[in-house]
Amino acid sequence: MTQPTGPLKGLRVFDLTRVLAGPTCVQMLADLGADVIKIERPGAGDDTRGFAPPVMPGTKESAYFVGVNRNKQSVTLDISKTEGQALAMRLIAQSDILVENFKVGALAKYGLGYEQLHAQFPGLIYCSITGFGQTGPYAPRPGYDSLIQAMGGVMSLTGEPDGLPQKVGVPVGDLFAGLYGCIGVLAALRHRELTGQGQQVDIGMLDTSIAWLANQGMNYLATGENPPRLGNQHPNIVPYQVFPTADGYMVLSIANDPTFRRFCNEFGLEHLLADERFATNAARVQNRQLVTDTLTPVLQQHPTAWWIDRLEALKVGCGPINTLKQVFSDPQAQARGVVVEMAHSAVEGGGTVRTIANPVRLSETPADYRLAPPTLGEHTDAVLHDRLGLGHAEIAELRAKGII
Fold first, then answer.
1. What would the CATH number be for the domain defined by 240-322?
2. Catalytic residue (choose from 46, 174, 207, 368)
3. Active site residue 96
4. Which ranges in 252-401 belong to alpha helices (H)?
5. Of 35, 247, 297, 382, which one's alpha carbon is 20 to 30 angstroms from that of 189?
6. The pTM is what?
7. CATH of range 12-212+333-400; options 3.40.50.10540, 3.40.50.970, 1.10.8.190, 3.40.50.150
């Protein structure tokens, strides 16, 4: 196996996560060089192995699983059995970080709860990612992305004013929880470096979803009023929204008054600057429908490409509304290397799978793409032999018992 080269090189992670929030956290750590052992259920594995179609071309591996599980070694281990728990404890004893997203209290019945492990391994950093965190009346509840988007408020803000509340088109509740979990782990590592003491990182998806309400959350705290759904418009800036063009749609993002003046002066709209309803952003917010109705026929006079060429020359924010095909073929995305091809053992006849690159660009210690997302149990024998010193006969016996 290629050795890690990132800034977290030398750190070992015991990964008890599945689906998305936990695996997102751990993949970030793995991309930065951590040595990860992903524990999966014998015969079944991570739930997302079954989230198909689609599968990656030439394999039976689900695209969902492949997206968040690179740079991990897959070990199948039944932690519900005593022998499985004993093996887990031996691997945890060698680990710096444990990440899990079981229901609150579920791991304690296997002797793998935070308090139990902290007593034995006081330097262990133990990250728990759940729907509602470790405390509070909702702590025992399961958490799912759509549920968290609903309870966390973002669905009340998303959608057309006269339409249904809408969830975001990707599972942002899971993704943000995973990223906040990674930030917490990195902070805990720094604390351990200074004190030698580990700790629990307690991530609740509802907490993180409230945290990223950002300006809308603050708008509520400032006014006590529930922000309305505005479709593709911005609550604090106008015009900053989708407009139809002669051949489709585009986003126009005019973030301040000097930019609005440049826009008006360039496209024969100088008269709007003398109208107090258009003169300032605050006035435009108060008269957003008038602004929208006034600018819509203007934008419809020309195709999207025409507008983008001229608006970019004016340094006015704008952009097309790309399909994913257009996203991945965009010259900027290609120049930044947003897709990484990795050799994968499951590709029939040999070959690669494509994954989305890590967006954290470090000048001295870049993301490390050393291990393709593993097949189920791909590294079980190697880990048990190399890490724990088990012989082939012992491993075969464990497999016969269903422990691995």
1. 3.30.1540.10
2. 174
3. no
4. 257-266, 270-273, 281-286, 288-299, 304-313, 324-329, 331-335, 380-386, 392-400
5. 382
6. 0.94
7. 3.40.50.10540
